[in-house]
Amino acid sequence: MDGFLQSLGQNIGMVTIGGTIAVACCAMALCQVLAARARERSRRELAAYVAEGSMTADEAERILSAGEAGKPCCGGKRRSSAPPMTADA
């Protein structure tokens, strides 16, 4: 047991880096699962609206496709289709 603790103490930097990478991977996976879950919930709600006649299938399709452009993942920046602002405008 003393040998293990001594070895751990000598390699604390590597252990810290490895632990940080493991936590980041778990956080990213959780974020992707939550995003997929929210997307599926939205699809179900839109399907219900179409079924009850509150909206057309074309409107629902347009709403769903609007969210797919750029697809940010967990805090990523969404790409805008608008042209960049210039100092003149």
Please give a structural write-up:
This protein has helices at 2-10, 12-52, 57-66. With 89 residues, the protein is an all-alpha fold. The protein has a domain at 13-56. The longest helix has 41 residues, at 12-52. 0% of the residues are buried.
Shape: rod-shaped
What is Rg?
A: 23 Å
The tally of beta strands, per DSSP, is 0
Order of helices and strands: HHH
Provide the helix percentage.
55-70%
Q: Give me the secondary-structure category.
A: mainly alpha
Strand content: under 5%
Given as residue ranges, the uncertain stretches (5+ residues, pLDDT < 50) are none
Ends: how far apart? 69 Å
Overall average residue pLDDT: 82
How is the biggest beta sheet arranged?
none
Number of helices: 3
Annotation keywords:
89 residues, mainly alpha, 3 helices, 67% helix, rod-shaped
Give me the secondary-structure topology:
Layout lengths: L1 H9 L1 H41 L4 H10 L23
Structure, briefly:
By secondary structure, the chain is an all-alpha fold. It is built from three helices and no strands. The protein has a domain of 44 residues.
